[in-house]
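Please check the following.

. . .
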Amino acid sequence: MSRTRTTLALAAATAAGALSLATVSATAAPLPLAGSTTVTPAGHAFKATLSGKATLKAGSVTVTCTVSVSTGTVPAAPGNHNAAGPVSSPISPPTYSSCTSSMPGVTPTVTTSGAWSVSMQNGSPITATMTVPTGGLVVHTTGLAVCTVITAPSGPASVAGSWTNGAPPSLTFTSASVPVTVTGSFGCPTSASSSAFTAVYKVTDTTDPAQQITVGP
């Protein structure tokens, strides 16, 4: 074999070996562990109240509500701390009222049910995940278009948001994707398979209003 062919063969083998090592390294690399999370005060009840308006947009149709409330409780110690992940709290199904539709002549009604929860993961930013149970939120419209929108139709859905510590702290969802099914008459967005949820909730400590619910390491 000529020197040129030998050099090319060695270069090809070296490249193949490097690619093989890179592939093994990428496959074997462990995923980073979630950081520590602590929610305080442990065992305190809280209330989340909508600030401004909440919107649920499916297709070209947007439902807007100006009143929404949910309540819950921070887990008692030591359940309010997770050394390697989020802390979850059950919450009451949020209520929604004073709702309007972007479709003229259409009136929406929002009902909620089931076991809802919210989890917090400390970090920068602090992330929040609201879990909607199967069929946990239903929008029904009457008037010129009769539509039914069912969220999380095939199983519980995770709605991604963020938490900001403060006085009071806030829980924010910005165009968070939620799976839906839509049925109904002409004008209903029946082809939509997801909706975008936007809302900001202010959270108050109802056990001791002088304190703030806080998420930390």
